[in-house]
Amino acid sequence: EENEHDDDDDDDDDISYEDHAVVDADVDVDVSVDVPPPSSHQSQQSSSQQQSQSQSPLRTRTSYKHTRMFASNNGNVDNDDINGTNSSSEVVDATTMRRSASNEDLRREAGTTSSSRSILSMGWECFKYLYSMILLLFCMTLFLACIFTHQSTAANYNLSPIGAFCLFCFLIAWLFVMEGGQGCLVGLQLVHERIYRTSHPRAYLNARIVNENDNMERFIVGRQFLVICILFLINMCGSAIEGADINMITTTTQSTQSQFHLPEWVNVVFLQSGVAMMITTVVLGQLTSQVNAAICMLDFINNYFMLLTTYVSLAIEWSGLLHSVYLVQYAFSRLSRSDEERGAGSGSGASSGASANSGSGIFSKIWFWSRVIMSCTILCFSMAVTIQSLLLGQGGIFTKTSSAWAIVVFFTLMCIIGIMEGLQIAAFALINLPEETIRQHTLAYMNCKLIFENQHLRPFLIGRQILVTALMFFVARITALTSEDINDINNEGEGEGEALQVFGLSGRLLPNGGLFGAFVLTILGSLAWRIVASSFPIAFMSNPLVYVIVRICILIEGSGICSSCWVLARVQKMMTGWQPDEVYLENAPKHGTEPMTRQEEDVDRCFGVLRYGYSLALLVFCVAVFMGSILADGGMSTAVNYNLSALGAFFLFWFLICWLAFLEGGQGCLVGLQAVNK
Fold first, then answer.
1. What is the dihedral of CA 330, 335, 337, 339, to 10 degrees?
2. Which residues 6+ apart lie within 8 Å of 145 measured at CB?
3. Do the beta carbons of residue 482 and residue 153 sit within 8 Å?
4. Which of 485, 493, 534, 535 is nearest to 385 (CA)?
5. N or C: which end of the chain has fewer CB within 10 A?
6. At what angle do helices 304-319 and 201-210 cross, to 10 degrees?
7. Can you tell me the distance from the alpha carbon of 591 to that of 516, in angstroms, rounded to the nearest whole number?
8. Which residues make beta-bridge pairs with 250?
9. Measured in whole angstroms, how far is the alpha carbon of residue 485 from the centre of its chain?
């Protein structure tokens, strides 16, 4: 603390505490910037804490303790629920409210001892970890076999198997950094960078850049487009081609050889539908990073790869590609000004991001609105290309099928993804409203109760992450316009298809791989829905589909299909030696390999069961083989060399084993009892 006070004369490093409302740990509304006015009881608590913590570095630490996200409580630290187009204060508000709503659940889970949980519950958790790891390894094997047998779409882009594999590894690593990095940067907003400037210099650079002006919202907008582009690129290099079958491998002589002997339904379910690719991406690239980034924020972003991601995300937003979303933001901010939900959401705040981007000078406004016009033009062109390709039957997996069916599926998936993107924003925005107000809207109240009660929050967030990623992959497969598709739809001379003409441009001049679909999905299937949910949270939560979607998300998480992320996160944390943030911010003692959360305890228990189980199975197998060699007809052991019968050798062996056991244990007992009076 003395070292921290040494820099108080530095004007650039002064901590302004007036912007933070300190609320007691038992209050559900968490520390935030520009939070709604607290109740009188909360105000009294805030005043008393302000007096006791006047201008102390502990004040910042207290804010940090209230805003950190724990892996054991939701596992999904992906801040996709944050409105990427809101102001920085609203970004903090949405995140901290979500963390506060689940901190009580965390304390309840962390304090739960093994003795208070049933054997069936612990056994089910261990089973989920085990079968999820087996499923992950199986999916990775199928996925990589598809790439290295030239049966992935990478072959359409003249990518060698080694090149496709390296590209996939790079994209997964980048996705890993992005998914956990955003949660870290948002979670560290209320912690002054000076505190960890020396211990984590690269984390300091990341936070310093993002916390400057309105860079946080710009980072979130650019990062969202980057995430979707990476998912589309993974689909481009790893999706199985039509009729892929890893049971057969094609050689240079076009002969085939059986490899795996798997049933046909395995190829259909895991390869042709893309399930193997989806599970591999969700576990390795998203959930695992979010689990560790939840409690090790400083260590997670203390690298140059995250710094590169920050610059790239800001550059994407600065380019103006996504500025059309600010037009939507302006429209809904005006609509929400007169709405009764202004207290819960974003009436005036929804437009703050666009206002900050547009600036106050004439040149700033011209620069801003020129990028808005450019973004709207690109959006219209991308939508035209996507719809035209679907109408011509060249929409990825819907090749040569009904164009009407393809368009219906495309827009249906866009709406479902949009609902899930805005669902969390709307749900957490309603935390600020009195319960009596929410009760007046039956469906909204029922949906909020389903999410926040009975420890459903963590399963919902994890299941939502899995479902959103799966649907994004499916949209990528629909909108991907491969090189073969472009050649087909421009092959007018042979009469094999219609020419793709969009605004007078031939399809041969268009980039392929689903870039247009990614652009449309980012704006119309993600960011725009977040703005709607932020502007009208009650109306959004009153959608009957919300209840069904929440139930499906909880069911997906309960199945344990991606529970392997906890195992991988535990292994990664032990290998890297990452420490919880309180070790650096609160001088807490360093942690070793002991578990910190209930999930880590379950993973360790699962490892123990596996070690004991396979060791016992190995012992039984060895004894069976050994006894079989002794008791076999004619004798297969050296006992026959001494004219010992099989039965005599059997009894002699067990007599010697028992004698050896007494000898080994007896010596230790006699030595240990030497100092005891007989």
1. -150
2. 246, 259, 260
3. yes
4. 485
5. C
6. 10
7. 47
8. 256
9. 32
If you count them, how many residues does the chain have?
678
Query: 0.70 cut: is pTM over it?
Result: yes
Residue 3: pLDDT above 70? no
Helix (H, G, I), strand (E, B) or coil at 537: helix
The whole-angstrom separation of Cα 245 and Cα 247 is 5
Residue 291 in tokens: 């689990």
CA 138/CA 141 separation, integer angstroms: 5
The pLDDT value recorded for residue 87 is: 36
- Please give the C-alpha separations between residue 625 and each of 618, 630, 639, 675, in angstroms, as whole numbers: 11, 9, 15, 44
Tens digit of each residue's pLDDT (9 = 90 or more) over 382-423: 898 888 888 777 655 655 556 778 888 889 999 999 999 999
Give 149's DSSP letter.
Answer: T
Paired tokens of 597: 């959360």
Q: Which H/E stretch holds residue 258? A: strand 256-258
Residue 655: the pLDDT is 95
Which one-letter DSSP state was computed for residue 501?
E
Cβ atoms within 10 Å, residue 128 = 22
Q: Which two tokens stand for residue 452?
A: 């926040």
Phi and psi dihedrals of 177, rounded to 5? -70, -40
Please tell me the distance from the alpha carbon of residue 420 to that of residue 409, in angstroms, as a whole number: 17
Selection from 182, 191, 169 nearest residue 57 by Cα: 191
Q: Find tokens 């007989």 and name the residue.
A: 678
Separation of alpha carbons 197 and 4, rounded Å: 11
- The CA distance from 489 to 492, in Å, is 7
Q: How far is CA 375 from CA 48, 371, 428, 519, in A?
A: 50, 6, 30, 10
Listed in sequence order, the residues at least 6 apart from 539 whose beta carbon sits closer than 8 Å to its beta carbon are: 341
Q: Please state, in angstroms and rounded to a whole number, the distance separating the CA atoms of residues 183 and 177.
A: 10
Tokens read off for 465: 């992450």
- Write out pLDDT tens, residues 100-132: 433 444 444 444 444 467 788 888 888 999 999
C-beta separation of 502 from 388 below 8 A: yes
- Encoded tokens for 607: 């490892």
Tokens of 264: 């046909």
| Residue 152, beta-bridge partner list | 240
State the pairing for strand pair 256-258/501-502: unpaired
Q: What angle do CA 177, 179, 180 make, to 5 degrees?
A: 70
Backbone angles phi, psi at 118, to 5 degrees: -75, 155
> In b/e form, how buried is each residue of 628-642, taking b as 16+ CB within 10 angstroms?
eebeeeebebebeee
Quote the tokens at residue 525: 């299937």
- Tokens coding 4: 């921290």
Neighbours of 60 (CB within 10 A): 20
CB atoms within 10 A of CB 540: 25
Secondary structure element (H or E) that encloses residue 570, with its range: helix 564-576
C-alpha to C-alpha distance for 89 and 352, rounded to whole angstroms: 10
333 CB-side CA count, 13 A:
18
Of 293, 268, 230, give the one whose Cα is nearest residue 74. 293
C-alpha 10/C-alpha 8 separation (Å) is 5
**For residues 119 and 125, what is the distance between their CA atoms, to the nearest angstrom?**
10
Mean pLDDT, rounded, of the chain: 76
Rounded-to-integer distance, Cα 351 and Cα 328, Å: 10
CA dihedral sign, ordered 653, 658, 664, 670:
negative
CA–CA dist 575, 560 (Å, integer): 24
